[in-house]
Amino acid sequence: MLAYIIRRLLYALPILVGVNLITFALFFMVNSPDHMAQAQLGIKHITPEAIAQWKAERGYDKPLFVNDREDSEGLLTDTIFFEKSVKLFVFDFGKTDEGRSIATEIKQRMIPSLSVALPVFIIGLTVNICFSLIVVMFRASMFELAAMVLCVAMFSISGMFYIIGGQFIFGKTWNLVPVSGYLHGVDALRFLILPVFIGVIGGIGGGTRLYRMIFLEEANRDYIRTARAKGVSEYGILFKHLLPNGLIPILTGVVVIIPTLFMGSLLTESFFGIPGLGSFTIDGIQAQDFSIVRSMVFLGSVLYIIGLLLTDISYTWVDPRVRLS
After folding, report:
1. How high is the pLDDT of residue 137?
2. What are the angstrom distances between the C-alpha of 293 and each of 33, 193, 280?
3. Could you give the CA distance from residue 303 to residue 295 in angstroms, rounded to a whole number?
4. Partners of residue 325 on adjacent β-strands
5. How far apart are CA 254 and CA 246, in angstroms?
């Protein structure tokens, strides 16, 4: 097991290097340091001297990849890529173009992101599994047909429709909850009810269809027919045999998500004014702040790789037939 984990971590290094390179190249294909300076300084303060000073203060006055003005020691190290991207591998996120510490921003915004993402994940997973089990219980009936039509319709609707519709009905029309905003502590609950509810509702269509397919596949296996032939009740088959075995493939899509939960949801946090990491990423993109973009992309890649590793390890716990070597 330990050798497998070490090998997977070593495999992750070239992946992270590739993600870093692609992110860096794509960003500077669209934006140059001059354009970034102009966006930050504004129209009134744009002069060649102001642009040069802005780039010098933030380290954007150097070549991108290769500095042929330096000797062999600074050829690759005295560049924007090395100073801005390579330090990420020791989790040195640096500062935003406005001078704020990115690490501090991540620590402060992690809790609001988790406050939305974690309840949506837990409640949504429970609701989707329970609903899909009910659909499987009444398979080949009008209830299953109606449920699948409803799930397809819900899956086909854009997430923005749920957000805007929920804000209009529950916030504007009925005045039950705030439309947007966030407060820390217990007061945060009234700001989280609506985004969590919308997040759960928006995921029912796709989640139920996926889990129903998994449970239906298990329902046609020999061990289910054997249990039914022995006189086991449908409820016993459903919860003692079908559910435990059906949860094994569900782990593939669930465990990998867990480490990335604190990254937040871009749409939800932006529309509801929640100061989480999702809105932080959106703000960085809109401000053309490469420091924020590269940090969040790198952090998301690290967490996704950790999720994949946890998925492989979890298989050995729930399925003894799987062994990692």
Report:
1. 87
2. 15, 29, 9
3. 12
4. none
5. 13
At 233 the three-state DSSP class reads coil
125-180 pLDDT, tens digit each: 999 999 999 999 888 899 999 999 999 999 999 888 999 999 999 999 999 999 88
Take residue 208 and report the two structure tokens written for it: 């139920």
Burial class (CB in 10 A: 0-12, 13-18, 19+), 85: buried
277 Cβ neighbours under 8 A, 6+ residues apart: 106, 109, 110, 113, 262, 263, 264, 269, 296
- What residues of the chain score a pLDDT lower than 70? 1, 43-45, 69-74, 318-325
State how far the Cα of 139 lies from the Cα of 22, in Å rounded to an integer: 47
**What is residue 101's DSSP assignment?**
B
What is the residue whose two structure tokens read 């954007």? 60
pTM recorded for the entire structure: 0.84
Where do we find the tokens 């705030």? 178
Between CA 39 and CA 112, with CA 98 as vertex, the angle to 5 degrees is 110
Residue closest to 204 by CA, chosen among 138, 152, 143, 258 = 152
Find the largest Cα–Cα distance for the chain.
85
Domains (range + CATH), the chain: 2-90 (no CATH), 106-318 (1.10.3720.10)
